[in-house]
Amino acid sequence: MDKGYDYDEVREIVKEFGFTAHIRSRGEEAKSIKQEAGFKARRWVVERTHSWMNRFRRILVRWEKLPETYIAMLHITCALITLRAYCLPK
Predict the structure, then answer these.
(1) Which terminus of the chain has a lower count of CB atoms within 10 Å, N or C?
(2) pLDDT averaged over consecutive 10-residue blocks of the chain (90 residues)?
(3) Coiled coil: which residue ranges (predicted)?
């Protein structure tokens, strides 16, 4: 994540859910790329996934009124993305 997420509140939420925060301040990523050969940014994975999710119009336009229904559609979308990525022949 970039500097937009570099707040104590965000770090506490990440810790509460048991995730590892990969939050970098501005310029830190560029310095790492110059120092470490073969260094790859992690941000593209999230951006790619959001792009795949935006291909589902029902998620992009949010037709559902109930939060539970919307969350269910998000789960179905993620399942379909995973199925296409790992189970279907390329």
Answers:
(1) C
(2) 72 88 70 66 76 88 90 93 82
(3) none
Q: Are residues 77 and 53 in the same domain?
A: yes
> How many other CB atoms are there within 10 angstroms of residue 24's CB atom?
19
Rounded distance between C-alpha atoms, residue 84 and residue 16, angstroms: 31
pLDDT of residue 68: 94
pLDDT confidence of residue 39 = 61
Question: Looking at this protein, which amino acid is placed at residue 70?
Answer: Y
Is residue 70 within 8 Å of 64, Cβ to Cβ?
Answer: yes
Q: Determine contact, residues 39/62, Cβ cutoff 8 Å.
A: no
Q: Structurally, how many domains does the chain consist of? A: 2
Pair (48, 66) in one structural domain? yes
